[in-house]
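Lab channel / #folding
Pinned by the channel admin:
"Please post every new chain as: sequence first, then the structure tokens as a reply. Keep commentary short and put observations after the output so the thread stays searchable."

First post following the new format, from NK:
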Amino acid sequence: MKDRYKPLQEEFSNTEQQNVVIFEDGYGVSRSSDYIIYSVEAEAIDKVVAQYGRATKKYAIVGGQTSCKAPEVAAFERHLPSDIDIVSCHSLHGPNVDPKNQPLVIIKHRASQESYDLVRNVMSCFGSKLVPLTAIEHDRITADTQAVTHAAFLSMGTAWQANNQFPWELTRYVGGIENVKCNITLRIYSNKWHVYAGLAILNPSAKEQIRQYAESVTGLFKLMLGGHREELEKRIKTAGEFVFKAGARTGEPLLLSDEVLDQFSLGIVPKERTPNNHLSLLAMVDCWWKLRIVPYDHMICSTPLFRLWLGVTEYLFRKPALLNEVINTAVEDNTFRSDDLEFTFAARGWSDCVSFGDFSSYRDRFEQIQSYFAPRFPEATRVGNEMIRVLLEKTQGKPQ
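Reply from TO:
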């Protein structure tokens, strides 16, 4: 962004920060820096490293902040001189979340212990929990904890937009679990599209999981439409037993409670709650079961959004009366049928988009829905930040 060169020069020439030097492009940065972080979109990482990597200062340390490490590491290996150490990182939270105590992955890919320790010392200023992983481990865990979570909320937003709904204006989408659905969906759509596209499209594990989520949504919806209660109940409870059996048997407290869920609403909470079949939640647990993923295994690397989503699925599956109500609603109540139909279309559409590796289509879909919900982003961000703060308080000290 060369148009920012002169304004930044003027800004920093008038301050006491005389040690800050503004360069016209990445060549000057690469030639003079001992530690360089490439904070670019995963889709563009190879192109950017190819452009500036050859100018890297001898014996420097290079890393990246992309959400998918396979293309990042490949770009570094392809374009950086052999005397450069590679130590990458990834903060597992969004820009509006306090980094203190949040997981920050550190990847020692090709580096001396001295270089690795230097990066750890630099990153310690955030107060985050430093988690050492390999690039392969990082991509697998981020797929397990983020890919399907994002797909679920992207699909909710798509369905609401297709039905021309602002869910917080409908009493059936206000209160309890519905608050989490609305707030996180708006939070995701308030961010840049590439934050989610890179992780979904460039991570092979993520593609598989998003495809399975769409299949789980479709399979469960067909059982609901057909009125196959016995088969639906067996499938749902088998999946729940696989995912939540440890917590249920030990009596471990729920991540979220009624009091917590009811605090954060974008609309007026009705006196009586409308029963919902919660297809999005049922499909999440079905997907984990089909892929043999136990989400609690990755809590040390979980994002705030993932912990919220896990919290509401746990809230549903570990309350037998509520789960039975959901199953009854799924078979006997048509209140949410049109919403579920659009949600099924949306889940399959996002899965196809990811499978085709189509960044342009992903961006178009995302930004169309983003513009629809944009007026409520400021309030949703405020409420979402408070939700995350409360969740972190609730999970502080829980085994990970």
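NK: The first strand starts at residue 35 and ends at 38.
TO: also worth noting, The radius of gyration is 23 Å.
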